[in-house]
Design brief:
The protein has 290 residues and is α+β, with helices and mostly antiparallel strands. The chain has two domains: 185 residues, no CATH class; 93 residues, Alpha-Beta Plaits, CATH 3.30.70. It is built from nine helices and four strands. α1 crosses α8. The protein is elongated and about 100 Å long. InterPro entries: ABC3_permease_C, FtsX, FtsX_ECD, FtsX_firmicutes-type.
Length: 290
């Protein structure tokens, strides 16, 4: 195996320009794959958080007494699939808006506050929000009931579109990288045809002849993954630490840099090695008939 490793590295040096082209193709491919993976994994994380955070907002009639409000809370708590019911006054609602959008909204404090008192209802599952909303809207002293389902559905649809396009584009890039690697290995096989013939004559096994080419493809994929790992790690760290995405005002967050980046780097290295070895296998099958 030590001889095979040495042969594969020498072959990379001997075919310098083609090896560089193959490594560059893998680098560009894995850079885009790494960006897509980081994006899609975090989009899925935020989507899950949005789905779990969907809640029913039950707006209370303006003239409802405290006794009726307490009774309404009991009725909401008794509904099927309701997990918790939390009261929030119109003053608290305004404070939340001021915290999110700025002090200019303080002008509506006091009697100028146009907001309503509200019950925030968490359901046992996101799917139950629609039925709970419909039931809550029929109760006495309820002005209206709504939930973020429509926004969530639009978000989920956009996520599906991004995922489909991202996966399709990634597959195309991976095919291009495999094609370039297979061509590099093909040139190596052709340049060593005499050497391969001699090895056959002296009794070299098929595996002995094939291993250096397989390792050469794997090296190409591994070397091509180094720069994408560094770029993706640096870029993700900047985004995570500099733009306040670690804890957004709505409570959504990205994956922490550790151990997320470790697993992402391992995935990129693994993908690089796999597509490199696959390119070598394609060339060996077509141009190394043994």
């Amino acid at each position: 195996m030590g001889r095979h490793v040495g042969d594969s590295l020498r072959s990379l040096r001997r075919n310098g320009w083609m090896s560089l082209a193959a490594v560059s193709a893998v680098t560009v491919t894995l850079l885009l794959v790494g960006v897509f993976m980081a994006l899609l994994l975090n989009v899925n994380r935020v989507t899950t958080q949005v789905e779990n955070d969907v809640r029913v907002r039950v707006y209370i009639d303006a003239n409802t007494t405290k006794a009726d409000t307490a009774q309404l809370k009991g009725q909401l708590s008794a509904l099927k699939d309701v997990k918790t019911v939390k009261y929030r006054s119109r003053a608290q609602e305004l404070n939340a808006i001021v915290g999110d959008y700025g002090d200019q909204w303080k002008m509506f404090a006091g009697d100028k506050n146009p907001l309503q008192n509200v019950f925030l209802v968490d359901t046992a599952s996101p799917k139950a929000t629609m039925s709970v909303t419909k039931q809550a809207a029929k109760l006495d002293h309820v002005a209206s009931a709504s939930y973020g389902g429509q926004t969530a559905k639009r978000l989920f649809g956009a996520v599906d579109t991004v995922q489909n396009w991202g996966i399709g584009f990634t597959i195309v890039l991976l095919f291009v990288a495999v094609f370039l690697i297979s061509n590099t290995i093909r040139i190596t096989i052709l340049s060593r045809s005499d050497e391969i013939g001699v090895m056959r004559l002296v009794g070299a096994t098929n595996a002995y002849i094939r291993w250096p080419f397989l390792l050469e493809g794997a090296w190409t994929g591994l070397f091509g993954s180094l720069i994408p790992m560094a770029v993706v790690d640096a870029g993700y760290s900047v985004v995570y630490h500099s733009f306040g995405f670690t804890r957004a005002a709505n409570g959504f967050s990205l994956f922490p840099t550790m151990p997320f980046l470790v697993w992402l780097d391992l995935a990129l290295a693994g993908i690089g090695i796999i597509i490199g070895a696959l390119g070598a296998l394609i060339s060996m099958r077509r141009f190394l008939r043994i």
